[in-house]
Automatic annotation (TrEMBL), chain A:
Domain HTH luxR-type: 160-225
Signal peptide, first to last residue: none
Modified residues (4-aspartylphosphate): D63
Pfam (any one): GerE
GO molecular function: DNA binding
BP GO annotations: phosphorelay signal transduction system; regulation of DNA-templated transcription
Highest taxon of source: Bacteria
The protein's name in its UniProt record: Two component transcriptional regulator, LuxR family
Claim: Signal is one of the keywords in the record: no
Keyword set, alphabetical order: DNA-binding, Phosphoprotein, Transcription, Transcription regulation
Annotated Response regulatory domain residues: 14-128
Keyword Nucleotidyltransferase: no
UniProtKB/TrEMBL annotation, chain B:
Protein name: Signal transduction histidine kinase
Regions that span the bilayer: 25-46, 191-216, 223-240, 252-275, 282-301, 307-331, 338-355, 375-393
Pfam families in the record: HATPase_c (PF02518)
Keywords for this protein: Kinase, Membrane, Transferase, Transmembrane, Transmembrane helix, Two-component regulatory system
Organism from which the protein derives: Bradyrhizobium yuanmingense
GO biological process terms on file: phosphorelay signal transduction system
Lineage: superkingdom: Bacteria
Claim: RNA-binding is one of the keywords in the record: no
InterPro entries named among the record's database cross-references: HATPase_C_sf, HATPase_dom, Sensor_HK_TwoCompSys
Residues in Histidine kinase/HSP90-like ATPase domain copies: 534-636
A Gene Ontology molecular function term of the record: kinase activity
Length: 229, 644
C-alpha cells in the first residue's frame, strides 16, 4: 500500500474533514492519514470556516448534520469560494435524502461512515483523480426522477427537489446501468463507449444536477416550464 | 246458535267496510240529489222568455182533410211523408203605426220544418237552414214580412208543418209583430241553441286533436284514444249536414247523425279506463245497439236510422249514462278524489237532462219541446277533455319535479359515495400503513434487532475486536437493506440487485474475494409489477446468506453471481445463482460441528425465505464449491405465504 498520497505537484493532498461525532471523526482521520493525506478536522461549521481561512483544501469531506448548522451551507460556500475543491458528503446510510441534497449544492459523491479504511482512501483518491463515485441507489433515485418528470405527474415526487431536465439520454442510460449494478466496463461495452469516458460522464451528471444560485434555479424553472413568467 | 257463532267472525270484517262504503256513498248520493234538483230548476229558469204580446196562438189546423181549431203549442201525429202536411191557418192584426221597424214572424220551436206564408205569400221555409232540420237542436226561425204584404187590420198567416218521423210534429206559439220586439228573443234562442253547440263542437274538435296526439305518443294509455274517438264522433255528428226528405242524401251522413249510442258507449269505456279498471270483455255488448243502428241505417237508408235511433239509440244513451253514473259512484267510494266527484256530478247533470228529454219526447212533460241533453253532454265532454289536459300538464310538472328530485338525489348519492370512498381510501391507507409497519417491524426484528442484541451480548462478555465489529457491520448492512427496500423500484428487481452488488463488493473486498457479476440477458430480470418491498428484503437476505456462507464457512476465493431469464412457455422467470469455489458444506460440516449447525440453520432460513416469496431454492455443495440456485416465481405472491 502506498503510504503517501500526493497531488500532481508532488505536495501532500489536503483534506478538510467536518464531522461532529468524535469516534467517527477519528476513524476517518486515521484511515486517511494512514493513506498519506494531510487531514484537518473540524467538529462544527464555525471550526470549518476557521480552517478555511488558512487556505482551501483539495478535498472537503463533510457531514450534513452539524451542531451549529447544516453541511449543505458549507458545501454551497465552498463551491462559490473554491470551485476547484472536490466535495464529498459523509453519510451513515448513504440515503438519497441527504446525498441528493448535497449533490444539488455541488457535492460530487458520498462516503459511508463505516466504509473500510482501504475503501475510504480509494474513494478519495478516485475523487481527486476526477472519478466521481456514484452508488446504485443514488443512480436509481436520479433515473426514477427523470421518469417521473417525463410522466408529468401533478404531484411533486417525494424527496429532495431535483432537476433532471439537462441530462442527456446517454447520461440517463449510464445511470440506468449503474442503478442495475453494472460496472463501468460493462456499461461502456453496452453503450459502445470507452471505459475511461464513463467517470467523466458521471462528473457531468453531478454538475448538471447542481443548482448554483437562486437566479439559476429560477432560470432552470422557467426553462422547464415550472414557472410561467 | 253454534252456526251463528261460527259465522260471526267471518262477517265481522265486512261490517266496517260496509259502514265505510255507506259513509262515503250516502253523502255523494245526497249531493247528486241536490244536483238533480238544481238542474231541474236550472232548466226551468233558463227557459227563454218570448214576447207574449205578439203571440198568435189561435189557429185552425187542417190535417188529413180535417179542419179543427187548435191552440198552439200543438202536437201532431208522426208521419214519414212530406206530401199533404198539416196546415195551420190563423190571423193577426197589423197596425201601420208600428210599421217603423218592419214586421217579422218568429217561430221559437217547431219540428221538423215549417213553411210560413203571410196573406198567401211564402215568407219562410226552414228546410233551407240545415241547423233548423236537426230535431235535437232547438233552432228558432225569424223572417221579415215585406211591408207590401201587410194590410191594415186583419192579416192571414198559414204555417205548413213538415214532419218526418218517428217524432211527432210540434209547433210552438207563433209570434208576429214589430221586428224590434221579436228579434231579441230570437237572438237569445239562437245563442243558446245554435251558436253554443257550434262553439262546444269546435272546442271538442280541438280537444280531439290534442287527445289524439297524446294517445299517439302514449299508446299504452288508451284512455286518451277512446276519448278522442268519442269527440271525433261528436264533432262529425255536429257538422254533418242533416238530410231533408225527400232529398236523397248519402246513407253515411244519415247514420253518422245516429252515432250517439256509440259515442256514449265510448264514454263509458273512457270512464272505466280513466278510473283504472280493466275494460271487461262483455262490455263490448254496449256497442251492439250503436253498431246495429249504424249497419241497418247503412243498408236500409232513411228513415230507418231515425227510427232505430229512437227505439234503440236513445235508450242505449240512457243506459250508458246510468252505467257511467254507477262507475263514477264506485270511483267516488273507492278513491274519494276530485276527478271522480267532478265527473260524477257532470254525469248526473247529463242524466237529468236525458230524463227530461225522454219525458218531453213521451209528452209526459210539456216543455215546449226543448231538448237539452245534447247540449249538456257536449259541455260534459269539454269539461272532461279540459280535465284530462289539466291532468296531463300536472303529470308533466310532476315529471319535472321528479327530474329535479332525481338530480338532487343523484347529487346526494354522489356526495355519499365520495364520502364513503374517501373513508374507504382512508381505511385502506391506514391498513396499508399498518401492514407496512408490521412488515418493517418483522424485517427489523429479523435482522437489525438480533444483531444489536448480539452486539450487546458480545460487549457484556467483554469480547473485543472482530466479532463485535462484524455484528455491528451486519446490523448496519441490514438497516441499509431495509431502507433500500422501501424505495419504489417499479418492479425491477435489477435495481435492488444493483445496490446489493455494491454492498456485497464492499463486504468482500477486505476478505480479498472477487465478486463476479454476470447478467445473461441485456435487460436483466423480467419486470414484476407485483413486487413488494418485503419480497426484495427476502431475496436480498437469501443472497446475503449465500455470500456470508461462502465467506465464513467455505473459505471461497471467488464468488460468481449469475442472473438469467428463462421462458418455459408460461411466461419468463428469473434465476439468480450464487456459486463459489470454496470447500463446500459437507467438508465444513465434518470438520466443524458448530459451523455445520449454523450452516444448517442458515440453509433452513434461506429455504423458508424463498418459500415466502414463492421462489424455489436449490443448493448443491461438494468439495469443488457450492451453488445456490434461486428460481424466482413468474408472479410474486400478494401475501406473505409463511406469515403468521
Amino acid at each position: 500500500m502506498i503510504m503517501t498520497e500526493q497531488g500532481e505537484t508532488g505536495e501532500a493532498i489536503t483534506i478538510l474533514l467536518v464531522e461532529d461525532d468524535a469516534p467517527t471523526c477519528w476513524r476517518l482521520q486515521d484511515a486517511l492519514a494512514k493513506a498519506g493525506y494531510e487531514v484537518r478536522s473540524a467538529g462544527t461549521l464555525a471550526e470549518a470556516r476557521q480552517a478555511l481561512a488558512a487556505g482551501a483544501p483539495r478535498v472537503l469531506l463533510t457531514d450534513l448534520r452539524l451542531p451549529d448548522g447544516h453541511g449543505v451551507e458549507l458545501i454551497r460556500e465552498m463551491r462559490q469560494r473554491f470551485p476547484d475543491t472536490e466535495i464529498m458528503v459523509i453519510s451513515a446510510l448513504g440515503d438519497e435524502e441527504s446525498v441528493i441534497s448535497a449533490i444539488t449544492v455541488g457535492a460530487t459523491g458520498y462516503l459511508l461512515k463505516d466504509a473500510f479504511p482501504t475503501d475510504i482512501a480509494t474513494t478519495v483518491r478516485d475523487l481527486v483523480a476526477g472519478h466521481s463515485p456514484i452508488s446504485a441507489s443514488i443512480a436509481r433515485f436520479i433515473v426514477r426522477r427523470t421518469q417521473g418528470a417525463a410522466q408529468n405527474s401533478a404531484e411533486p415526487p417525494p424527496g429532495p427537489a431535483l432537476n433532471t431536465a439537462r441530462l442527456t439520454p446517454r447520461e440517463i442510460d449510464i445511470l440506468w446501468g449503474i442503478a442495475k449494478g453494472f460496472s463501468y466496463a460493462e456499461i461502456a461495452s453496452h453503450l459502445g463507449l470507452s471505459k475511461q469516458t464513463v467517470p467523466g460522464h458521471i462528473k457531468n451528471i453531478y454538475r448538471k444536477l447542481e443548482v448554483h444560485t437562486r437566479s439559476e434555479a429560477v432560470f432552470e424553472a422557467v426553462q422547464q416550464g415550472l414557472i410561467k413568467l | 246458535m253454534s252456526e251463528i257463532a261460527a259465522k260471526a267472525p267471518t262477517k265481522a270484517p265486512t261490517r266496517p267496510r260496509r259502514r265505510l262504503i255507506a259513509s262515503r256513498l250516502v253523502p255523494y248520493l245526497l249531493l247528486q240529489a241536490l244536483i238533480v234538483i238544481v238542474t231541474i230548476l236550472g232548466i226551468r229558469l233558463l227557459q227563454p222568455s218570448d214576447p207574449d204580446d205578439y203571440a198568435v196562438d189561435d189557429f185552425s189546423a187542417r190535417e188529413d182533410g180535417l179542419t179543427r181549431p187548435v191552440t198552439l203549442p200543438h202536437f201532431t201525429s208522426s208521419r214519414y211523408s212530406l206530401a199533404d202536411p198539416p196546415i195551420y191557418a190563423g190571423t193577426f192584426t197589423f197596425r201601420s203605426g208600428d210599421a217603423a221597424s218592419g214586421w217579422s214572424v218568429f217561430l221559437p220551436r217547431f219540428s221538423n220544418a215549417v213553411e210560413v206564408a203571410v196573406n198567401g205569400v211564402v215568407v219562410l221555409d226552414s228546410r233551407r237552414d240545415t241547423n233548423a232540420n236537426r230535431p235535437d237542436r232547438n233552432t228558432p226561425q225569424i223572417a221579415a214580412i215585406p211591408a207590401s204584404l201587410l194590410r191594415e187590420g186583419g192579416n192571414e198567416i198559414t204555417v205548413r208543418l213538415f214532419v218526418w218521423g218517428p217524432l211527432k210534429g210540434f209547433l210552438d206559439t207563433v209570434y208576429v209583430g214589430p221586428d224590434a220586439a221579436l228579434r231579441p228573443a230570437y237572438e237569445t234562442r239562437t245563442l243558446l241553441f245554435v251558436t253554443l253547440p257550434v262553439v262546444f263542437s269546435a272546442w271538442q274538435a280541438i280537444l280531439a286533436v290534442i287527445l289524439a296526439i297524446m294517445w299517439l305518443m302514449r299508446r299504452h294509455e288508451p284512455v286518451y284514444g277512446v276519448l278522442a274517438t268519442a269527440m271525433v264522433l261528436g264533432v262529425v255528428q255536429a257538422f254533418a249536414p242533416p238530410p231533408v226528405p225527400p232529398a236523397t242524401v248519402s246513407h253515411l251522413a244519415a247514420v253518422l247523425l245516429a252515432s250517439a249510442p256509440i259515442e256514449s258507449a265510448l264514454i263509458v269505456v273512457f270512464g272505466v279506463l280513466f278510473f283504472g279498471w280493466r275494460w271487461p270483455r262483455y262490455g263490448t255488448l254496449l256497442f251492439v245497439p250503436g253498431v246495429l243502428v249504424f249497419v241497418v241505417g247503412l243498408i236500409g237508408g232513411p228513415p230507418l236510422p231515425r227510427i232505430l235511433f229512437l227505439v234503440l239509440g236513445i235508450p242505449t244513451v240512457g243506459l250508458c249514462l246510468f252505467l257511467m253514473a254507477c262507475v263514477t259512484a264506485t270511483a267516488v267510494v273507492r278513491r274519494q278524489d276530485a276527478a271522480s266527484f267532478t265527473i260524477g256530478c257532470a254525469v248526473t247533470i247529463v242524466l237529468v237532462c236525458w230524463v227530461q228529454d225522454m219525458l218531453t219526447v213521451l209528452d209526459i212533460v210539456s216543455n215546449d219541446r226543448i231538448f237539452v241533453s245534447r247540449l249538456s253532454y257536449s259541455a260534459m265532454l269539454v269539461a272532461i277533455g279540459a280535465g284530462l289536459t289539466w291532468r296531463f300538464a300536472r303529470a308533466l310538472n310532476q315529471v319535472d319535479s321528479f327530474a329535479g328530485q332525481l338530480v338532487t338525489r343523484v347529487r346526494e348519492a354522489e356526495e355519499r359515495l365520495k364520502a364513503s370512498f374517501a373513508r374507504e381510501e382512508e381505511r385502506a391507507r391506514a391498513a396499508a400503513l399498518a401492514n407496512e409497519r408490521t412488515r418493517l417491524m418483522r424485517d427489523l426484528h429479523d435482522g437489525l434487532g438480533g444483531q444489536l442484541v448480539s452486539i450487546v451480548a458480545l460487549s457484556e462478555r467483554g469480547s473485543t475486536g472482530a466479532s463485535i465489529t462484524d455484528a455491528a457491520r451486519a446490523a448496519l448492512k441490514d438497516l441499509r437493506l431495509v431502507i433500500d427496500s422501501m424505495d419504489d423500484i417499479g418492479g425491477d428487481l435489477m435495481l435492488a440487485l444493483g445496490s446489493w452488488r455494491e454492498r456485497a463488493t464492499a463486504q468482500l473486498r477486505p476478505h480479498d474475494i472477487t465478486l463476479d457479476w454476470r447478467v445473461a440477458t441485456p435487460q436483466g430480470l423480467p419486470l414484476h409489477p407485483e413486487l413488494r418491498p418485503w419480497h426484495v428484503v427476502q431475496i436480498v437476505r437469501i443472497l446475503d446468506e449465500a455470500v456470508t456462507n461462502a465467506v465464513k464457512h467455505a473459505q471461497a476465493r471467488r464468488i460468481a453471481v449469475t442472473i438469467d431469464t428463462f421462458d418455459a412457455g408460461q411466461g419468463p422467470y428469473g434465476v439468480i445463482s450464487v456459486t463459489d469455489d470454496g470447500g463446500g458444506f459437507a467438508l465444513a460440516g465434518n470438520g466443524e460441528a458448530a459451523g455445520a449447525g449454523q450452516t444448517a440453520r442458515g440453509l433452513r432460513n434461506m429455504k423458508s425465505r424463498a418459500a415466502r416469496c414463492g421462489a424455489v431454492l436449490d443448493l448443491t455443495s461438494d468439495s469443488s464449491g457450492t451453488r445456490v440456485r434461486l428460481k424466482l416465481p413468474q408472479r410474486f405472491p400478494d401475501s406473505d405465504m409463511a406469515a403468521g
